[in-house]
Every structure is written in C-alpha cells, then in structure tokens.
Specification:
Shape: elongated
Oligomer: single chain
Largest sheet: none
Low-confidence stretches: 13-25
Number of helices: 8
Strand content: under 5%
Structural class: mainly alpha
Mean pLDDT: 85
C-alpha cells in the first residue's frame, strides 16, 4: 500500500506541475464539457484515479484490487444506466459510452479471475480512451 500511496503523491505532483504551465492551454475555458452526476462519480478521484494511477505505474496487482472495489462497480452501473445529457447525445458518444462500459467490465472480470496483467491493462486503457470521448467538450 505504501508503494501505491507514493505513486499517488508522484501523480499529484506531476498533475500539479502540468496545471502550473499555461491555464488557458490546459483548461479549454471556452469549451463546454458534458456534465452529469454519473460521469462525475465514475471519474472521481476515489473511483477511477486509483486504478488509472496503478495502471500508469505498471502496478497491475494494485489495479486488479481496485477494479474489484464495489464502489467502482456501483459507479459503473449508474453510469451505464444514465443517459447522455442533452446536446451531448451523439452516436459517437453513445458508442464510446458503450465501449467504455464493456471494456471496464472486461477489466473487472479479468481482475476477479486473476487474468493476465497485459489483458487487464489493455481492457482498462481501452475503457479509459472511450471514456475520454464521452467526456470530451463539444
């Protein structure tokens, strides 16, 4: 667990250093992002960040443990059953949402069955990429 905490601190410092560059470049101020509770819950620091951090640092065993977290499953269930907000309900986003859910569920299944580290990483990364499409600005 100490290794995981160290990774979180390093990621936080890295994220902070990115945020200190040019805020206009980092934050697309004039763009509108989709905003709904189920997306926010899934993307929260408590749910998705620990998994992404572990995968990013190659600590797939920790990622597997975090994928088994019941809170992640609940957030994913809520996200899956939610509707895309008005104005963001395109076919592309809808397909990306379905792919994100499918890939995250595959990652969960692989973690629960002690699947290969490469397969867990690939499923999670594909789910994350699809989620970025869902969460992209207009």
């Amino acid at each position: 667990m100490n290794k995981f905490c160290s990774m979180l601190v390093l990621l936080s410092l890295f994220s902070f250093s990115l945020g200190c560059s040019d805020p206009a470049k980092e934050m697309r101020i004039n763009e509108e992002y989709p905003d709904w509770p189920e997306l926010k819950a899934l993307q929260s620091d408590e749910i998705l960040m620990p998994i992404g951090t572990a995968v990013g640092f190659g600590d797939i065993e920790t990622a597997k443990a975090e994928l088994k977290n019941p809170e992640f499953k609940l957030a994913l269930d809520a996200f899956e059953s939610s509707q895309l907000p008005s104005g963001y309900d395109s076919e592309e986003r809808s397909a990306a949402k379905e792919k994100a859910v499918k890939q995250f569920r595959e990652a969960i299944q692989l973690a629960e069955s002690n699947g290969s580290n490469d397969a867990v990483k690939e499923a999670f990364e594909e789910g994350s990429a699809a989620l970025r499409v869902v969460a992209a600005p207009k």
